[in-house]
Design brief:
By secondary structure, this protein is an alpha+beta fold. The chain has four helices and four strands. It has a single domain, classed as Alpha-Beta Plaits (2-Layer Sandwich). Strands 2-3-1-4 form a four-stranded antiparallel β-sheet.
C-alpha cells in the first residue's frame, strides 16, 4: 500500500448517489436501463422476498409468476444473478439483456452436448 499526499476530493452525496445508486449491484453509471424479469410460480415465493434494488418494482401475475423490474447500468453482475435461476426466470426486456442471457445459456449448454 502506498500513501499519497494529495487530499481526497470531496464529492456531494447527491452526486455520488446519482452515479452509484441508480444501477444494479456494484457497477456504476448514470445511463440506467430497466430489466424486467418473470420468475416461475415455483420460484416466485422465494424471489419475492429478496431485495435486488431500492428502486425495484414487482407484481404477482394471475398464474402465480412474479415479475420484477430492476434498474441497471452494466449487465455483467445482473446477468450472473439471472443465470442462477436457470429455467425459473425469463428476461422480458430489454432485448439486449435477453440476448445476453440467451447467449450465455447456449454457451453453458454446449458443454453438455
Amino acid at each position: 500500500m502506498e500513501r499519497v499526499e494529495e487530499p481526497a476530493v470531496e464529492i456531494a452525496e447527491a452526486d455520488l448517489d446519482c452515479e452509484l445508486g441508480n444501477g444494479y449491484g456494484i457497477f456504476s453509471g448514470a445511463a440506467v436501463k430497466t430489466a424486467c424479469l418473470r420468475f416461475s410460480p415455483e420460484m416466485a415465493r422465494w424471489v419475492s422476498r429478496e431485495k435486488w434494488h431500492s428502486q425495484q418494482e414487482s407484481r404477482f401475475e394471475a398464474d402465480g409468476s412474479y415479475v420484477l423490474s430492476v434498474p441497471y447500468s452494466a449487465e455483467r453482475e445482473l446477468l450472473m444473478d439471472i443465470m442462477r435461476f436457470g429455467p425459473d426466470v425469463e428476461v422480458l426486456g430489454p432485448p439486449e439483456l435477453r440476448q445476453s442471457v440467451s447467449a450465455a445459456l447456449n454457451k453453458a449448454a454446449s458443454h453438455y452436448r
